[in-house]
């Protein structure tokens, strides 16, 4: 799982091209998920906008648990 964190909206770390991207805004953090690089690059989808630090950590935890959870039949 690749993460990218950018301290501003110029996004120098290319956070939207990672599995999880976090970009600082004036009001908090934007959380992006499911980006992709390589042969078929794809910008990540915005999961949550302008969230505070505690909410960001909670969303990251939930997303990672969903991502690593084994499939059920």
From TrEMBL:
SUPFAM superfamilies, per the entry: Nitrite and sulphite reductase 4Fe-4S domain-like
Q: List residues of the Nitrite/sulphite reductase 4Fe-4S domain.
A: 2-68
- Give the Enzyme Commission number: 1.7.1.4
Task: Kindly report, in one word, the top-level EC class recorded for this enzyme.
Answer: oxidoreductase
A Pfam family this protein belongs to? NIR_SIR
- GO-annotated molecular function: 4 iron, 4 sulfur cluster binding; heme binding; metal ion binding; nitrite reductase [NAD(P)H] activity
User: Which keywords label this protein?
Assistant: 4Fe-4S, Heme, Iron, Iron-sulfur, Metal-binding, Oxidoreductase
What's the name of the protein?
Answer: Nitrite reductase [NAD(P)H] large subunit
């Amino acid at each position: 799982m690749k993460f990218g964190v950018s301290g501003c909206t110029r996004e120098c770390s290319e956070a939207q091209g990672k599995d999880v991207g976090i970009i600082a805004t004036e009001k908090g953090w934007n959380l992006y998920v499911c980006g992709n690089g390589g042969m078929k690059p794809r910008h990540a989808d915005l999961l949550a906008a302008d969230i505070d630090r505690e909410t960001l950590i909670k969303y990251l935890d939930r997303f990672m648990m969903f991502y690593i959870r084994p499939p059920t039949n």
